[in-house]
Amino acid sequence: MPILHSIIHRIDKGDGETPARLVPADAPLSPSTALDDLLAKLNDAYHGKAKNWGRFAEEPPAAFAAELAEYLAGERDFATLTRALAERLTPLIDDHLPVGGHLLAVDHRQGDARYLILALLHHREGFAIDESLGVVPDRQLNLAQMTLAARLDIGQWQAGSASHPYLSWTRDRGGKKLAEAFAETLGAREQRDAGEETRTLLKAFSDYVEHEDLPEEASREKTDALVDYASDQARLGEPITLEELSELVDEERPKAFYEHIRNSDYGLAPEIPPDKRTLNQFRRFTGRAAGVSISFDSHLLGAAVEYDEEGDRLIIKKVPNGLRDQLKRRQ
């Protein structure tokens, strides 16, 4: 994960009587193993956060996007680029956060891709053991507390991809106004609701499994393939590509699931942002007893399937087509 440029600016926030103050760095950071390790942990922490996905707004044009283009063209250095952004973020932090922090910006490569990640880092008080084996206070970066962070896929942005949601930013629970102000500062326009898009994809998958009337074992294998792929993409901070997913879901008919989505009115783009929380909820309930085998996706509970706890019974609201035909023939 080669780092091209990195820098840290400090934003101090006082007791509320005085406005927040930017203390900018004079120059980028020097390369180090510690910085490489911090970037790796920062990426992991960021991918686990709830995020909005989108693109730079075209009208009005985003100031940060214009400055970033100048930096990539060699017309602006990294310190100047990030300082201008930190200056715009300072009043936002003053209005919405109880404390300031250190704004870390890293331009780096990951495989063939190039990313810019930004994060406002806070500290937490901890303890350490010194050379004399005594306990001493120690301040550490708290990567779990990441109220402001963003990640840009530079290559996809420069390519002008129409479907790729190349920009993402944090959306902390209860911090809607902060997320909106942060997006405005970045010049970002929300394009996708990751949770809603992921739920729509899972609905399309459930419909596909039902339409194909797949055996339980095949259904479970395809569910595992979908969840594994989508979870990996979420971990990497990359969107789900429907064509790639379709190939994994059915190797013998690699276009079948993709065509099912395209031919139905799901409204999904070729690439969608994954939502980790929604994926974690997508599991299957399975049970077998007294000659009866039942299996269904967990998200259907309360919708297509209801559990009557008092009567200890399952109510299936929509009988699968193949089972319905068998029942009709028996009658």
Topology (elements, then pairings):
Blueprint: E1 3-12, E2 21-23, H1 33-47, E3 51-56, H2 63-72, H3 78-96, E4 101-110, E5 113-129, E6 135-142, E7 149-153, H4 154-159, E8 167-170, H5 176-186, E9 188-192, H6 194-212, H7 216-236, E10 240-241, H8 242-249, H9 256-262, E11 271-272, H10 276-280, E12 284-289, E13 292-297, E14 305-308, E15 313-316, H11 321-330
Antiparallel strand pairs: 1-2, 1-4, 3-8, 3-9, 4-5, 5-6, 5-7, 7-8, 10-11, 12-13, 14-15
Pfam families: NA37 (PF04245)
Subcellular location: Cytoplasm, Nucleoid
Family: Belongs to the YejK family.
Brief characterization of the structure:
It contains eleven helices and 15 strands.
List keywords for this structure.
11 helices, 2 domains, cytoplasm, 331 residues, 28% strand, nine-stranded antiparallel β-sheet, alpha+beta, Nucleoid_associated_NdpA, two-stranded antiparallel sheet, Nucleoid-associated protein, 15 strands
Number of domains: 2
- Terminal CA distance reads 65 Å
User: Which spans of ≥5 residues are poorly predicted at pLDDT below 50?
Assistant: none
Tell me the radius of gyration: 24 Å
Shape: elongated
Strand content: 25-35%
Helix-strand sequence: EEHEHHEEEEHEHEHHEHHEHEEEEH
* Number of contiguous helices: 11
- Record field, number of beta strands: 15
InterPro entries: Nucleoid_associated_NdpA (IPR007358)
Organism: Halomonas organivorans
Protein name: Nucleoid-associated protein
Family: Belongs to the YejK family.
